[in-house]
Amino acid sequence: MAFSMLLHASKGDDVTLSCTFTSSNTPTSKMTVDWSYRPQTGGPPQTVTYVEGLFGFPYIKVRFTSRIQWKGSPARGDASISLVNATLNDNGTFTCSVRNPPDVHGSPTSHTVLTITPKVPSIRFSDVAVLLALILLPSAVITVFLIGRMICPRKKHSKSKAYRSPIEVTEG
After folding, report:
1. Which residues are in the Ig-like domain (predicted)?
2. Which residues in 100-115 are b (16+ Cβ under 10 Å) and which e?
3. In whole angstroms, what is the distance from residue 21 CA to residue 23 CA?
4. Residue 33, class by beta-carbon neighbours within 10 Å (0-12 exposed, 13-18 middle, 19+ buried)?
5. pLDDT digits over 34-88, tens only?
6. Comparing C-alpha atoms, which of 31, 157, 155, 163 is closest to residue 104?
């Protein structure tokens, strides 16, 4: 019976595609692990990676070269892989098939429907610093100035003193 899973990730994330299997026999050199990929847009399945034998070297399809890493441990019933730096073009269904004769015959073990979405822009420290410098700093200076004027008002000239003009009028 195949295990199905929906997996969501953001562009640029590393994604682990899980594949577990049960076998009554210890994995041997006859064991194979086959990962295939079917794009979300449809079309035939494409081989992603194929590992033959317990310590075999994986074949990795050019589309995923250097972005697929083996994460599995066949002795523990794990044939998982990791997709590094996921792109929007990776949306689709990844299928894992394990064959470990005589009891595991290569039927699909897991189906993972992967959905990659663009990253949501986040506020960076520099954005916050610019906001502080352009908005909060001038506001703080003006507030301190106004509070200072309220606490220490300017001295007013007293009107009780007689007004004297700089021009003096004399009689005669």
Report:
1. 1-115
2. beeebeeebbbbbebe
3. 7
4. buried
5. 888 999 988 888 888 777 665 555 666 667 878 888 888 888 888 899 999 999 9
6. 31
Report the first-to-last Cα separation within the chain, whole angstroms. 127
| 3 state SS for the chain | CCEEEEEEEECCCCEEECCECCCCCCCCCCCEEEEEEEECCCCCCEEEEEEECCCCCCEECHHHCCCEEECCEHHHCECCEEECCCCHHHCEEEEEEEEECCCEEEEEEEEEEEEEECCCCCCCHHHHHHHHHHHHHHHHHHHHHHHHHHHCCCCCCCCCCCCCCCCCCCCC
Q: How far apart are CA 131 and CA 137, in angstroms?
A: 9
